[in-house]
């Protein structure tokens, strides 16, 4: 282990350093995260607090090769490989950011809106033709009602 | 009590031919004695308002079968939890409800046929 690793025992030790402003600081930060200087690019300094943490490409676990001999096959990750800042959202059991749809998105919207409009159309067409049993309303003794038997 | 599928075209009939198809909330409009050789018997209400109020019957159950329902509920209360002893009272009450439903079905069919007949008579006169 020749490289100095970012390691620590408490959350303040995991905290990234300040945003690199000079070239020397960039080189030091790239060295710290184990990246070649050409690949190192920090998050923009917009107040999100990512500091000098590298902006890595968004590749979710599902998109990584399952047959590659990973050092850590559960996470599809190699030893000392820098982790994405949103790694916990792109694991294999979470959202697949690199998913490719089978069909274009307008096709799915057309399917959904077509099905819904047919259902709602049937509902409105049949709104005035509801079925009902062939009986008069219930009879209560507030007025005179008659049976179908005749008086003697 | 009839085929439930025959209720479906009735919805269409009530919409497209309301003049010959009474709706589900319409009371009979013709003279109840019209066309009978003798007078029809009147329906008799046996339970009084006082009894129904005392038994706390729901308003929708205060019809011509209310006295049998009061009997049935009283029997249930006396025999709880052996309510199966009230099968006779329950059967009487449900029979009464059945006969009530048959009368309402007959009233509906009578109203419908009289409407068809008056339409035909109007067409002949015109």
TrEMBL record, chain A:
Bilayer-crossing regions: 106-125
GO cellular-component term (any): mitochondrion
Keyword Transmembrane helix: yes
Region forming the signal peptide: none
Claim: Membrane is one of the keywords in the record: yes
Region (Disordered): 1-22
Pfam families noted in UniProt: NDUF_B8 (PF05821)
Domain of life: Eukaryota
Organism, scientific name: Exocentrus adspersus
InterPro entries in UniProt: NDUFB8
Alphabetized UniProt keyword annotations: Membrane, Transmembrane, Transmembrane helix
Protein's name in the database: NADH dehydrogenase [ubiquinone] 1 beta subcomplex subunit 8, mitochondrial
UniProtKB/TrEMBL annotation, chain B:
PROSITE patterns per record: CHCH
Record's function text: Accessory subunit of the mitochondrial membrane respiratory chain NADH dehydrogenase (Complex I), that is believed not to be involved in catalysis. Complex I functions in the transfer of electrons from NADH to the respiratory chain. The immediate electron acceptor for the enzyme is believed to be ubiquinone.
GO cellular component: mitochondrial inner membrane; mitochondrial intermembrane space
Organism: Exocentrus adspersus
Family membership noted in the UniProt record: Belongs to the complex I NDUFB7 subunit family.
Compartments where located: Mitochondrion inner membrane; Mitochondrion intermembrane space
Protein's name according to its UniProt entry: NADH dehydrogenase [ubiquinone] 1 beta subcomplex subunit 7
Keywords: Disulfide bond, Electron transport, Membrane, Mitochondrion, Mitochondrion inner membrane, Respiratory chain, Transport
Main location: mitochondrion
């Amino acid at each position: 282990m020749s490289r100095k690793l970012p390691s620590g025992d408490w959350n303040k030790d995991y905290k990234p350093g300040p945003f690199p402003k000079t070239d020397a600081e960039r080189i030091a930060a790239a060295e710290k995260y184990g990246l070649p200087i050409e690949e190192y690019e920090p998050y923009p300094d917009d107040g999100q607090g990512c500091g000098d943490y590298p902006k890595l490409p968004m590749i979710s676990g599902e998109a990584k090769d399952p047959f590659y001999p990973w050092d850590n096959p559960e996470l599809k990750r190699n030893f000392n490989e820098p982790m994405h800042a949103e790694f916990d959202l792109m694991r294999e059991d979470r959202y697949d950011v690199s998913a490719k749809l089978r069909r274009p998105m307008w096709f799915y919207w057309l399917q959904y809106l077509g099905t819904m409009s047919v259902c709602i159309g049937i509902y409105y067409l049949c709104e005035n033709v509801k079925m009902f049993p062939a009986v008069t309303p219930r009879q209560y003794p507030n007025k005179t009602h008659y049976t179908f038997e005749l008086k003697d | 009590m009839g085929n439930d599928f025959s209720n479906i075209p009735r919805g269409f009939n009530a919409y497209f031919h309301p003049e010959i198809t009474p709706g589900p909330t319409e009371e009979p409009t013709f003279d109840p004695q019209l066309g009978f050789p003798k007078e029809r018997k009147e329906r008799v209400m046996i339970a009084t308002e006082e009894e129904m109020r005392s038994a706390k019957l729901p308003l929708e159950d205060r019809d011509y079968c209310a006295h049998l329902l009061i009997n049935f509920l009283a029997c249930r209360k006396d025999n709880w939890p052996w309510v199966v002893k009230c099968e006779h009272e329950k059967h009487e009450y449900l029979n009464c409800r059945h006969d009530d439903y048959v009368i309402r079905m007959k009233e509906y069919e009578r109203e419908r046929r009289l409407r068809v007949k008056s339409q035909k008579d109007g067409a002949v006169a015109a």
